[in-house]
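## retry 2 of 3
previous attempt timed out at serialization; input unchanged, resubmitting
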Amino acid sequence: MNEVVACGFFSLILDTVLSLSLWAGLVLLRFPSWGPLVGVWTFGAAKWVFLYVYTSMLTDGKPRAVLCRFVAVLCFLSPVFESGRFLMADSSEAYVGPAGDLTTLLLGSVSSSLACVFWENLSCGDGKKRDADTVKSRQLLMRLLKYCRPDTLYMIAAFTFLILAVICDSLIPLYQGKVIDMLRGPTPQSSFCYSIGQLAFLSLGSALFSGLRGGIFMCTLARLNKRLKHLLFHTLMQQDVNFFDENKPGPLSSRLHSDVDKMGRTVALNANLLVRSTVRTCLMLKVMLGLSWKLTGLTCIEMPLMALVQNKYNTLSKELKDQIQDCQARNTDLASQTIGGIRTVRSFKAESEEVRRYNEALDQMSRIRSRSRVYSAVFLLIRRLVTLTIKILMLLQARSLISSDRLSVGNLVTFFLYQKPMSHSLQELLYCYGDTVSTMGVISKVFSYIDRTPKYKKAGDLAPERLRGRIVFQNVTFSYPSSAPGASVLKSISLELQPGKVTALVGPSGSGKTSCVSLLKRLYEPQEGQILLDGQPLHHYNHKYLHQQVALVSQNPVLFSGSLRYNIEYGLKDCSIEKIKEVAKKVNVDEFISSQKNEYDTDIGECGSKLSDGLKQCIAIIRALVRDPQVIVLDEATSKLDVKAQHTVLPEILSRGRTVLVVAHQLKTVEEADHIIFMENGAVVEEGTHRELMAKEGRYHRLREELFSSPAAERGSGLKV
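## retry succeeded, writing output
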């Protein structure tokens, strides 16, 4: 920045010295009409050489690219402006070159220096990083536009109607000005009526085309949002479980709904604004230049000033929008957790604590929103002040033009009718740019989810008609991705589950039992070793086939809002009601379900809130058995059933030669298992039958004596899953 300031001061001095010399030469020599313009460009070139040498001295012979651009702006801003004056000059007036007074010369130098500072504000920061961000943003937008291909015809129609509406809008003020001029003097009635008819026709066309454009754009936006939400939800469903461990449901739900809507709005609405404002600006600029180029120049001064303010506001607004989005996701997650766990909150009498936490979250959101409103108010104030200043200058200039008969009252009215829409169009362009930039973070985040590759091995297509159900863990080592480095949950364990037999997995909390179940269901992948099913690694099997043949019934089964039948046949196709009733009768639940008003179509409430814990386990058991799996994992699956229900359910589970893995702490279930595996600290410590392990008097024996015989164990709080 110091180099830029030094460059600006040196440019000011150089402007003064060289300008006086050049203008003195122009006075002494007689040039044709284009001579002064040649002199201006010669002066700019000479100034560029001097400044380039000066900046090379400042930077040890290696001027930065941004400084080179500064020098170009300082040197060639005035020649470009004077070339425009030369081209726009009336044929009756010869171009005499720039004003020769010293005040104008100094004003030009100051303007150049301000342009330099303006450029520095736009170009500050790391150039490489900024270029990389620009390229990334462009790639994201182009990729987002590709999702609009199915709506290409809709988009063409919408933009066609948009351009037609803009043309009609742009011509309306011109004809209004003509009608006003006709009111001043004698005008044939036919001409006056013809002008009124043209004005009415343009107004009608504007309304018609605008309505068609708006309807088609909204239809296209709805279709785009639907596709993007379907794609994102489909991608989320393919992710590994670790992804959902790292990303909470609240933020993911917010990305799926709120962020996708913002993405669609960026394409549909901002593209609408961009095309409409660009076409309108070009058309209005052409008409305004024909009316008065001086007033048009004053109007255009507003654009760089507003761009400077808008650029700063966009930066602050983007940061606040990201913070608000994060707060909304956290608040949604907090409310969802509290409402979903209201029974726990009520049991521990923590209502006031949860209200306090939620109020703190709302206060944080309110503070951020307050800052956003303050920035918005300040930005609006500055914008209004700039607009007011420009308007006052335009009125002063208009008075001079009307006094010299270079502008009529009708043309002035026409110009002012164009001036406000022109400024509004420029503001729309700036808003469109700012809104698109602020949405880049949202688009990038959504695409990062869509592009994420699940961190598990791709499932094969193995789906044998007959499955024995022999499962072997071979030197399996596993640690959760969120665990500390080196903290393995399973440490090179090896175990075997035999078909037609019940294997019990027991051990204290944190021994790795649940991790074994998760690996068997392929919710996670082991870091070392492998799990074989009938001699084949699990990932060789077809995904749907594997999860139909290996069924899990957990202690706290997850049910979904809907009917009993929906939850029982969840994930199955062509599951008949007769098969469901048959399994329900074997589990001794059919009588209860049939007694309900809607029987199997009875709504169970959100997450099964209308069912008792025992009935939830029964529904989960029916859901597993209706698939007729060869391997069943009972993760404390009968802990909430009474003794009679257990005697009814267990024989059905153990029938048909299934491989059964039981994770339990109830004494009777463990004692009757064909094989018991005792785990501790992620390793297999002992294994054998109940009698063999008791005879060894090892860890299983000691833990049984400590926990299974205690009153607490009888209540189900001894060994935990």
